[in-house]
Amino acid sequence: xxxxxxxxxxxxxxxxxxxxxxxxxxxxxxxxxxxxxxxxxxxxxxxxxxxxxxxxxxxxxxxxxxxxxxxxxxxxxxxxxxxxxxxxxxxxxxxxxxxxxxxxxxxxxxxxxxxxxxxxxxxxxxxxxxxxxxxxxxxxxxxxxxxxxxxxxxxxxxxxxxxxxxxxxxxxxxxxxxxxxxxxxxxxxxxxxxxxxxxxxxxxxxxxxxxxxxxxxxxxxxxxxxxxxxxxxxxxxxxxxxxxxxxxxxxxxxxxxxxxxxxxxxxxxxxxxxxxxxxxxxxxxxxxxxxxxxxxxxxxxxxxxxxxxxxxxxxxxxxxxxxxxxxxxxxxxxxxxxxxxxxxxxxxxxxxxxxxxxxxxxxxxxxxxxxxxxxxxxxxxxxxxxxxxxxxxxxxxxxxxxxxxxxxxxxxxxxxxxxxxxxxxxxxxxxxxxxxxxxxxxxxxxxxxxxxxxxxxxxxxxxxxxxxxxxxxxxxxxxxxxxxxxxxxxxxxxxxxxxxxxxxxxxxxxxxxxxxxxxxxxxxxxxxxxxxxxxxxxxxxxxxxxxxxxxxxxxxxxxxxxxxxxxxxxxxxx
Length: 574
Description:
By secondary structure, this protein is an alpha+beta fold. It has helices at residues 2-32, 37-60, 65-99, 139-152, 165-174, 187-191, 199-202, 301-312, 324-333, 368-376, 385-403, 412-419, 429-442, 476-490, 524-527; strands at 105-115, 130-134, 158-162, 179-183, 203-214, 230-237, 249-258, 263-268, 274-276, 290-292, 318-323, 337-341, 347-349, 357-359, 362-366, 424-425, 447-452, 455-462, 467-474, 539-540, 553-554. A hairpin with a 7-residue loop joins strand 13 and strand 14.
């Protein structure tokens, strides 16, 4: 009897809840604005009509217990459906707001590092000890760290100046110093050295200084991402965790999108490409000096973007910054990806994690960790970094295919969780929602094209390391061809139509000065600034390349003066 008496109350309660959740769902659909008008309007009308119908049925048949009971069940189900839909739309809105929030600062972390078995456990223990500091590299960061140490605990210790990051590690291992001050952005440069691969396991951080530096990474926005072509730079940091942490940019890929022709061109630049660095607003950066492009990530994504713009003579409209965690989390949230490994490119185990199963020829289903290892693999291939670039392009395409497939509905919740901290971008929330709307309405059959610039291996001086390291001296024909392919897609053509560089009326950038045979730069003037590393007598300044352009070449002992060795493999890489 009590249940019958309380029945009208429950009926009224869920009628109210149904209306509230319906209004909230409609509001979320309207504000998120991901549905085309011709779909959104009917959806909103349908939600309204369903609610009105249920209410009218309840009023008309309120004397019929069976009808009223059925209407109550329907209102409960609709309340749950509308509420769930509202929640996911609210989460989607929040996720888009998070990843499109423009960050005006870079996070810098400078560590005081000691050996694991050191007696130094606090700043107080530094008294009278020797601390290694970098003499010319990241001087600003070192000064900030020393200031914070003294502010935290005024203590006197001896500073030992060292020329390079590897020298710091060597001094710490040998006992020449008791501790070192090192920017965490340089940690990966240390652990890639064979002698210090165990650096993270063999050391510990006693103190870490944190400070922020300004970062201005503004979009060169197009008027409409659904009709106008544009370039996106994807910069992949070699770190786990916070995507905003400064670190090397191991993935440098320009994604050229032309929505009118449904064409996407992926242009990759090898991480070791030896290019003049544009620092942008970076802190303590070697402006204009030749260094590996991966090291520009240490200066922030603005530096990477401006360096790529000058290299390829293009404008970058937007940027995406990701890291190792981004790849693993996104791939896992999608339920894995499928990639097709060409004949001869099978890998038994990955160098990044030998415990993981490699890939076989043909189709492979990869989870996040295997997808990341596949994208990082280079030692298993004769073509080394060039094949790694191709692997990265395959992984990106596979992620795009999975994310735009109907399967995304099943994995939507986990994808939202992954995206919240997976990357940051200068695309605005409106631009992203407009693109999603375009994808839903037009359902374009995207055509993917790929290209990569290439060059020859050498061992040259890198300012960010303070010593020589393995680099890729780019072939300028491939750089020019990359520019022309990108321009072709922007102009509505296929990149595949461009098979050779188009003649230029004037020099477009400083990369026109070629090293004979290697397609690099006239570096003799640059290296003359570093006599302690190079003997200027080795340079032959009157050599010309095939195009007749005058260029300088290092005359390496055992090689002809007019050529660069096909490959010079260093003992270690930074």
